[in-house]
C-alpha cells in the first residue's frame, strides 16, 4: 500500500517523510512564539489530523554543556496527533510522519 492510496480504515503508523510534507506544513501551520519555545500547530501533511509540536529553544541542565555549533534553524517535526493509527508502537503518538522545517524566529 502506498501513502497516496485511499484506505478503508485508519491510516497505519509508518515512519515516513516526503518533501511535500515540509512544504505543506510550512504553508499551513500556525506559529506561536514564547520566550524559549515555539508552538507549531496544523493538520499533519500525511494523515490530516490536528497536530501540535513544541520546539524548545534551549534545554537547561545542572552541568555546563560544551559549546554547541551555531544552530542553523532546522528542526525535525513529528506528527503528534491523537488519532488511532494501527501498528503504532506503545507509548508513541502520531501517524509516524516527520518533516524538516527551517524556523526563523525573531530574536
Describe this structure in words.
The protein is mainly beta and 107 residues long. It has one helix spanning 19-28; strands at 30-33, 37-43, 50-56, 74-78, 98-102. A hairpin with a 3-residue loop joins strand 1 and strand 2 (37-43).
Question: Could you give the topology of this structure?
Answer:
Layout: H1 19-28, E1 30-33, E2 37-43, E3 50-56, E4 74-78, E5 98-102
As residue ranges, the low-confidence spans are none
Structural class: mainly beta
Q: What is the overall silhouette?
A: globular
Number of helices: 1
Q: Strand fraction band?
A: 25-35%
Radius of gyration: 16 Å
Largest sheet: 3 strands, antiparallel
Strand order of the largest sheet: 1-2-3
**Helix content bin:** under 10%
Write the element-wise H/E pattern from the N-terminal end onward: HEEEEE
What is the typical, i.e. mean, pLDDT? 83
Distance between the ends? 44 Å
Count of β-strands = 5
